[in-house]
Design a protein that fits this description.
The chain is α+β, with helices and mostly antiparallel strands and 357 residues long. The chain folds into two domains: 3-234, P-loop containing nucleotide triphosphate hydrolases (Rossmann fold); 239-355, Nucleic acid-binding proteins (OB fold (Dihydrolipoamide Acetyltransferase, E2P), Beta Barrel), CATH 2.40.50.140. The chain has helices at 43-51, 93-103, 108-121, 137-149, 167-184, 195-201, 219-224, 229-234, 328-334, and strands spanning 3-14, 17-28, 32-36, 58-63, 66-67, 78-81, 155-159, 187-192, 204-209, 212-217, 239-245, 250-253, 256-259, 270-275, 280-282, 292-302, 306-313, 321-327, 341-346, 352-355. A hairpin with a 2-residue loop joins β4 and β5 (66-67). α3 crosses α4. GO terms for molecular function: ATP binding; ATP hydrolysis activity. It holds the Pfam family ABC_tran. It comes from Photobacterium gaetbulicola Gung47. Residues 5-235 form the ABC transporter domain.
């Protein structure tokens, strides 16, 4: 695939603080990439370095065939949408969208045709004469998107564009942005701290922490094969189960001995087994297997298509709470109730192994 944006060894310091530490990344033409991570991980700083709003301290950024590392923002080819919409309250919707076009010296017919086109695309064909305060938050964010796209930029940058909206609007706009991005084929980078948003929208996710990239991959790769404990913990739900390797072929979890999930583990090692709630399974009452261990059910949370059971691991690690997701269709057969003891089976294929913290 053709690389459209190349980031090479980019660092950013603010005095003694390192916000970005030697970041290298290739983004392909037409790709939708999410920078994902907790507050302060460097994702917005990297987006601002790409836009020229915060210049990198060192390294190199190339967009297309042009080096842009130290160019002023107006000399770069991008459109940007912020969390706060940043619309001019004293201008109509049409004037907000057309501002950049007029600044480029486009004639009135071109401007009016372009504005009309984008109002149709964002589903607000009759709102050109309205002012921003007459629109809902979701509608204002669509106008901000149309303003960014009206200049036909080579790169679209989205800085937490949905975080100020309520859940239903956010979900709808998420689909709209993704559909529009695919339709236009525009290379897009979105900053978010919302893992669901990143998993649903991105072609690839860049997981960041403390100014470095922890992992780059498709949503499936990030979710199914986390490269570090941080990624496993940050993306989706993950149970971390303390275990010790007691022999050449067995581990101990609580007071239970189970087969070793990985041949590379050595006797005496202390590890944490990472298992998603959907990869743990309750056995029927009274049943156990070689790969199971006992838990006591503390809470049952109804989640629509499944019930999440919060369980206490029996044995030495009394405080460890495990989450097990049970599909509704299995619930009746299992007869789960608070306070009951059940055996939980773990699958070797879905077990991730991390060094004990």
């Amino acid at each position: 695939m053709e690389t459209y944006l190349k980031i090479e060894n980019v660092s950013k310091q603010y005095g003694q603080f390192t916000a970005l530490n030697d970041i290298s990344l290739d983004i392909h033409k037409g790709e939708f990439v999410c920078f994902l991570g907790p507050s302060g991980c460097g994702k917005t700083t990297l987006l601002r370095a790409i836009a020229g709003l915060d210049l990198a301290s060192s390294g190199k950024i190339t967009q297309g065939d042009k080096e842009t590392t130290f160019l002023a923002p107006e000399k770069r080819d991008f459109g940007i949408v912020f969390q706060s919409y940043a619309l001019f309250p004293n201008l109509t919707v049409a004037d907000n969208i057309s501002l950049g076009l007029r600044n480029q010296g486009k004639d009135n017919k071109t401007v009016n045709d372009t504005v009309s086109h984008w109002l149709n695309v964002i589903g607000l064909p009759d709102s050109g004469g309205k002012y921003p305060n007459q629109l809902s938050g979701g509608q204002q964010q669509r106008v901000a998107l149309a303003r960014a796209l009206s200049l036909s930029p080579g790169l679209l940058l989205l800085d937490e564009p949905l975080s100020a909206l309520d859940a239903k609007v956010r979900s709808h706009l998420r689909e709209e942005i993704r559909r529009l991005q695919r339709q236009l084929g525009i290379t897009t980078i979105m900053v978010t701290h919302d893992q669901d948003e990143a998993l649903a929208m991105a072609d690839r996710i860049v997981v960041m922490n403390h100014g470095v990239i922890e992992q780059v991959g498709t949503p499936q790769e990030i979710y199914q094969n986390p490269a570090s404990r941080f990624v496993a913990d940050f993306v989706g739900n993950m149970n971390f189960i303390p275990a010790s390797v007691v022999s050449d072929n067995q581990i101990r979890i609580g007071e239970s001995l189970l087969p070793k999930p990985c041949d590379a583990l050595e006797r005496g090692q202390q590890v944490e087994l990472g298992l998603r709630p959907e990869d743990l399974h309750f056995l029927e009452i009274g049943k156990k297997s070689d790969s199971s261990f006992p838990v006591q059910i503390e809470e049952l949370e109804f989640q629509g298509t499944f019930v999440r059971a919060e369980c206490k691991l029996q044995g030495a690690y009394q405080s460890n709470i495990l989450k097990v997701d049970v599909p509704i269709r299995e619930l009746r057969e299992l007869q789960l109730e608070r306070g009951h003891f059940h055996y939980v089976n773990m699958s070797k294929n879905h077990t991730h192994i991390f060094q004990a913290q």
